[in-house]
Amino acid sequence: PRGLGAAYMGPNPAGDGEAWVERLRAECEPEHHWKYRREFLLRNGGEESREEEGAELRRLISFSMVWANHVFLGCRYPPEVMEKVMDMAAGITVTNAPTHTLRDDLVSKVKRRAVKK
């Protein structure tokens, strides 16, 4: 089975190329999201990140999910986390990413309207 639970199951032989990353796809993850999160994982997954059950792999998975949630769902995280994942994602160009209206944008629009009256 695929999914994050499956990410830590099974052997992870050295020299398996890109096969290690395929175990990390969430079962319900859309192909469009996976394409870019996979790229994020491959760009940032050094040998130490590929170790089964390793802290580096768990950290990499977490950062990839934070980045994907930000890009595709509009989630926001503390500035330090956002800076880290955006640095890790430098050079990844996402096409057809949704645009999100943030709460702060809506509040500022309402405030501008109130000032004009």
From TrEMBL:
Looking up PANTHER family in the UniProt record yields: PARTNER OF XRN-2 PROTEIN 1 (PTHR48430:SF1)
Signal peptide, first to last residue: none
What organism does the record attribute this protein to? Anolis carolinensis (Green anole)
Q: What is this protein called?
A: XRN2-binding (XTBD) domain-containing protein
Taking every annotated instance into account, which residue ranges of this chain make up the domain XRN2-binding (XTBD)?
A: 21-117
Q: What is stated as this protein's family in its record?
A: Belongs to the CARF family.
Which Pfam family is an annotated match for this chain, by its short name? XTBD
